[in-house]
Amino acid sequence: MRNRLIIVGAGPAGLSLARALRRSGAEITLVERQSRAALADPLPDGREIALTQASVRHLRDMGVWSLIPPDEVHPLREARVLDGGSPFTLAISSPKRRGADLGVLVSNHLIRRALFASVEAQDGITLLCGREVREARADSDGVSVTLDDGTRLEGDLLVAADSRFSSTRSALGMGAEMIPVGKSMLVCRVRHDKPHAGIATEWFDYKRTVAMLPLAPGMSSLVLTLPHDQAQGLAALPLAELGPQFAALTRDRWGTMEAVGPVVAYPLTMTFAHRFCSPRAALIGDAAVGMHPVTAHGFNLGLAGAMRLARLLQGARDIGETRLLRRFALAHRAATRPLYLATLALVRLYTDDRPGAHALRKAMLHTGALAPVRHALGAMLADRKFARPMCARG
């Protein structure tokens, strides 16, 4: 048997793969640069994850879902896309069943905490925390990883799950398409007067993008895509000063606002690896595909990739067999590339401030030309084949 697995990166994708393979017979070593304490109790980072029904099932099957507080799980009933001051709405709702939820929203740090707790409780998974990879090699003979303390690990399969800026991916010679969006994402929880009704709103306003993700009644996660200097300037302000600023930026669509924090700004870069596998190596999570937050779907793609790879490796006599890795790469590319390209096209269209682009956006909303994107997002969020078309005023 060749079953020694080395995973670099203990983010959601890496932890999910390790947990899913716990009973596979593989010898699993997980390497992470963060400390064990930081992994066990991650700080809130402001990010809310829109989980599909399929993702919830995966987390439940792994014993992770029960570790997330039920009162921190918020229903996502519908999503709407707005363009500037246009009265038309591109609506994404659950296909087939009127009134069914698209999914649920859960804070990123709660998912990470639950995943780590589940993995840490398992026998047979070696966690090397507070360690960085200095060298990584993978070829037909095997894989080896050298850590910053001089430890040398050897195995039969190396999986990189260490972010969209993956140094392991680079060390293995697996390049990636890196597309800087040219703006930053600022996230903050806010209280607001007007009810959200469980509806997520993605509003492509002029020179900025606004997303409101519904949480508890009267509470949402505000996500602003802004020029870097504006995002950093807002992030530096006291919480008490941010409410009026946020209300103005959203044209009082949700009434008065109160920022409850934390406020965090991230530069935005979309990533798609040129290859998802090479001899005895594979990429999962953001190391494979780093999505724009407009879909709130990056976690689901990462989890789906980890589960896809885990299913292929279950019971394999050689977990680094080229045939298995190629099957994974082909399947994961087919599952992610269309949404990645559609999202990229949507972001480029809605962040283009030229008059011609504005006219095109209005025409597309009026004619329903964005229906394929709407259908794809609705189907994936609701875990079904087709989304129910909707186009409404307001």
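Next protein, fold it too.
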Amino acid sequence: MTGPRHILIEPGAPGDMAGPGWRRITARGTSMGTGWHLIAWTAPGLPDPAPLVAAACAETVALFSPWAADSALSRFNTAPPGWHRLPGPLMALLRDSLRICDLTGGALDPTLGRLADLWGFGPSGPVAAAPDATELRDARAASGRARLRIEGDHAFQPGGLWLDFGGIAKGWAVERAAQHLVAAGLRVHMVEIGGEVAARGLSPDGQPWWIDIEAPPTCRDDATRHLAALHGMALAGSGHWRRRAGPGAGWSHTLDPVTGQPGGGAVLSAHVFHRRAALADAWATALMVLPPQQGLALARAQDLPALLTLPDGARVGTCLQEWEDAA
């Protein structure tokens, strides 16, 4: 490989710093069909951080998993028509998702659960072939932002509407894990779940958390690779250069809300920085669906640091000038 790697350093003053004699702890686990990774600096008297991350993952499953029949999400999806009270975290994330849905023209739409399932990305499991026109029409008719109403802590189930938080739930899990860690006094940590990352504080020698922004195979040299230094931000990425083997191997997990089909390949990957991991995750998902220039313009309007990888391996970003200047 040739050429310099791009360095991005989170702007702003760092917060907490691990003290002399603090111990570095590393832990790993699995949940939600993926892995999680934790590194934390801990002082004497502070609790083991690993169970806190595991607890956040368990909360995420209990609230948002379409595969767990007793999750809050599954209960709403199978509920009879009428108004139903949703748990606070589920309603809050639904409102976050709907706000981004409205801002992006549906590029992130939490009401497409039936379509996601139809393409093999839901509780029914992988499918052997693409759905036919009738199946697609019926699933689209049962889906859509216009079918959902919310008031206070209640959502109206019109019958057959499936919510899906696949584009934001892992980010929420990271965010929740970080909240647990901070509440326990573990204020210097990096937690990653399924590729979504939140990092806080500095090591005893004053170093931030260095995160390599994953690049697809088309990025063949260091000139297109990026390394980010974080001390309080979250980083989420979405991409579809990795495709599973078997039926549906060429399908993106991101759905085009207009066609109801997996999105195309105008963006190979999207990475977003945000104070909240859930919103970083949601925006990264949305930017995978939008045309590159439209997505970048929207990110710029939202003052959202973002980096897109195009099919030819080129990387284009917005709102990253402060990050580059800090380097």
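About the second fold: The longest helix spans residues 88-103.
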